[in-house]
Fold this protein.
Amino acid sequence: MSNAMMVIYPYREQYTWVFDDERVGLVREPFVQGVPEMINALVADIPNAAQGFRLLFSANPFPGYQAEMLWLKAEYGGNWYRWESKNLEGWLCPALLKYFPEAPPKFYCKAEKLQ
């Protein structure tokens, strides 16, 4: 059974958001195709977020989540999601499957400043 709550620590590098997670073999994994804009909205109130922040995410709602992402379709091995309340869409690459056994129909996330 995988964890119900997961966490990564994105940061800005070379004009985009990336993250490292050595546990699953990812280094400077970039967010692309609309996801940087989603992250910008999530971290709008976090000072110095570009230096790093904590991103909590889960296939289940949790107290204080900021965004509900709705699955739209699979494409090129990745999956498109929509953040309805912000009218944003983004493509998550196959690295998503390092965290979920299959693309969830919804997932929830929250950005927090590092202490």
About this structure: Residues 6-113 form one domain. The chain has one helix and nine strands.
